[in-house]
Amino acid sequence: MKPRLLVSIIAGIALVIAGAAVIVLAANQPPPRANETYYPRPTRAPGVPPPCESTIEITFATDAEMNKAAPDLENDDRFYNQSFVTQAQNYERLKRAFANQPDVLKVLRPESVPAVVTLMMSYSGSKTTLLNDLRKSYGPANVADPCATPVTSTRPVPTTAVTR
Known about the structure:
This protein is 40% helix and 13% strand.
């Protein structure tokens, strides 16, 4: 057998083995991991209302209640990019937001701050129907529709320090 023919046969066999290895490795990839990252809430300027076309918030008195509802909300195809904020995370966020208002910080307690789930709607049906379904599942006081939030409110509003 000629040496060139032998080298060509060995190279062909090596290519077949490499191709088979790529196929086996591609087929044995682990499934994608569930969303484990914390998505911070988007920051907006004071006085600007939140976008309401596709955002729904559900508040829970405890982290345990939120964790109980989390699998159902994560697997609900009417939503995408679900954001889960624990009581501790929400407390820290509110401390930063109200840093310039010590009177508000005095009454703020970690156990009094709710856990919050923010849902982005991918649902093309009626938003009212969707909100009613969520209110039946999680209680009417816990499901907030940002579009229904009044323009004026007596509750404290975070102030933003302007630095130049």
